[in-house]
Amino acid sequence: MDAGRLLVFEGAEGAGKSTQIARLAELLRARDVPHLVVREPGGTTVGEQIRRLVLDPAQEMDAATEALLFIASRAEHVVRVVRPALQKGLLVIADRFFLSTYAYQIAGRGLPEEGIRAANALATGGLVPDLTMLLRHRASDGLARADRRGARDRMERADDAFHERVATAFEQFGAATWQRGHPECGPIVAVDASGTPDEVFEQLMVTLGERWPETFAVFRGSDR
Hints:
Blueprint: E1 5-10, H1 17-30, E2 35-39, H2 45-55, H3 63-87, E3 91-95, H4 98-108, H5 113-124, E4 131-136, H6 139-149, H7 160-173, H8 176-181, E5 188-192, H9 197-211, H10 213-216
Parallel strand pairs: 1-3, 1-4, 2-3, 4-5
């Protein structure tokens, strides 16, 4: 049994995942809490090559090809990076995991859920996140944030209808009924990401303090 914990951050484009993960990692470093920040796709030699391929605006690929590339990156990442870190007792903080595949490839691209869930199970070997923080916001707001970062990547360049389907899927993932039907995703807590970074971070710390008080409760009220 893994000694560490897997904490996942999810959300549509521009939800602010990277910002909040960076703030959380800074806090953990200051308090000497052993942790590792990872991202998908990427994290390994194979994964980084896949990342360049699937995000390259010059590339065209079938939806099934796209999904399998993301899942292949996940398989390599889990075996070589995530599980070893969990076995060492680290808190692994992941920028995307299961839910992104379900939102982008099932809801966004229209691929069959049964096949994607089966491929995902093969890739992860039954690894279930201990907690997923789902950052919610309007699709149009998120894309505006993404545009301020620079030119859109291949996924961001999809049409508005695609991004609306993705955003709607992420909204559904926060529902208890959806979670009961998808136990492989673990517990999911939705957070309103429309506020300022400070406001969003405060919500995250409240949730984490309630879930894992032995690690996070001491941060509340003393760190911002």
